[in-house]
Write a structure and sequence with these properties.
The complex is a heterodimer of chains A (253) and B (283). Chain A is α/β, with parallel strands linked by helices. Chain A has a domain at 5-97 and 170-248: Rossmann fold, CATH 3.40.50.300. Chain A has 10 helices and 10 strands. In chain A, strands 6-7-8-3-9-10 form a 6-stranded mixed sheet, sandwiched between helices. Chain A has a 4-stranded antiparallel sheet with strand order 2-1-4-5, with helices on one face. Chain B is an all-alpha fold and 283 residues long. Chain B has 2 domains: 2-44; 62-279, Orthogonal Bundle (MetI-like fold), CATH 1.10.3720. Helix content of chain B is 78%, strand content 0%. Chain B contains 12 helices and no strands. Chain B has helices at 2-44, 47-51, 65-96, 100-114, 117-132, 137-162, 165-173, 178-189, 191-206, 210-213, 233-242, 246-279. The longest helix of chain B is centred in the first third of the chain and has 43 residues, at 2-44. The radius of gyration of chain B is 23 Å and the shape is globular. The chains are: A alpha/beta (253), B mainly alpha (283). The interface between A and B is medium-sized, with 36 and 26 residues.
Chain lengths: 253, 283
Amino acid sequence: MGVGIQVNQLNAWFGATHAVQDIQMDVTANHATAIIGPSGCGKSTFVRCLNRMHETIPNARVEGTVKIGETHVYGNGTSAVEIRRRVGMVFQKPNPFPTMSVYDNVASGLKLNGYRNRRELDEIVERSLRQSALWDEVKDHLKKKSGASLSGGQQQRLCIARALAVEPEVMLMDEPASALDPISTSKIEDLIFELKQNYTIVIVTHNMQQAARVAEFTAFFLSGKLIEFDKTEKIFTTPGDKRTEDYITGRFG
Amino acid sequence: MPNQYWWRSFKDKLMVGLAGMATLLVLLPLVAIFGYLVYRGIGALNWNFLTKIPKPVGESGGGMANAIVGSGLILLIASLIGVPMGIGTGVYLAEFGKKRFGYLVRFTADVLNGVPSIVIGIVAWSLVVVYQRNFSALAGGVALGIMMVPVISRSTEEMLLMVPQSLREAAWGLGVPQWRTTLSITLRTASSGIITAVMLSFARVAGETAPLLFTTLGNQFWNFNVRRPTAALPLQIYTYAQSPYDDWHRQAWAGAFILIVMIVVSMSLVRMVVSRGVFKGGN
């Protein structure tokens, strides 16, 4: 089951650039939360702070607190590896491991952490591929085809299956459909709809229709600040802030 | 504008022609050397050459079996030292060495790459031979191993840097620790390039004579003890080619031919084994 995320006074820097400023936000468990805003507003950086991916960049820095369920993400005793096992991530560009087969890609999170039970791996791989609606397209050459030989949309669903296989509690999606055609996009959106029954989903998107379609909550970011965070319906019909209204009506960004 | 088109296609053909000529110019000496080597080498090659040790001066016949085995032994020691150290250094430079110390290591590796091989021979001599009070295969292996390190480490670094960051992030995002990511994702993705680098360095040191002169010394008899002076093909070729005897000259040609064959065979073997191991299940 998914867990909620509490973000308090979160600040993030790249060197001297203050990319994310004083974010305060509660993400509800088992729902989808969309993050919208113009390019460079810090949405990706914000999401990357939730699973401690931001700190992998040289000279990057984070301050503030993030709680995933009851765990302090930046607590003293918390390891980044442990957090990332519980918080899955899907990236903008599909990034399957090119040296691995479809099967090994899905199993990679478990295998690379020393999980060896073949029977259970088989089951988990099938379940994850079914969940990501890719099973029927790849079941005949699971171990023969390389992950990189699939089409772009299939690769992205493979990456989602790979993230699902380790059974995370939260799923972060950083513009998961922005490199895909409309058919693949709608498949991914259907998938998000399915997934949010069991996972907490945070999805960054440039596409406002997409936010409206998949997410119950929407946060609007601008220049590193959280401008408005409310029910999606409210954001898109009666936004409380002039800047939100300007953005969603296409006046800038 | 037909006029302009004519000029463009002329330029195009000219450049393709020039590139082709440059290729020919490079290939010509290569083919010539290899062809002449085969021509002179095969004639002198016989079963005795591959199975017998050298005859005393003045007697004809005999072979270089001890030098073939000795070379294999020395190259094995060199690879055992040079490959792990080179790949390890490359991993450090690409994945961790972004700071000052990394810069220092990179610079040192580049300088080491330019150091004449005979100087590296002296280093191995003072490190191993003086210490052991004995010329040995081990000393030669150390010298050649040191020569392999900068080539392997710099190419490993470059190959690893070519692996997209997104693959590392994909692994980190699954909760895979850094060391596992480096080992199973980054190194594996870059493996074919790294293997090429390892084999290039292997081929380069296989023919080195200078660093062996005062480390392994050479030996006219069988020796399998790594702490004793050992025969090596380049040394044997060097000695035989300078001698006044026709029979020895012919054997030197055969030795050079065998050396090339050894390099080509070991390269293809490694490539075959590794490409099977890495891609099983994939592609």
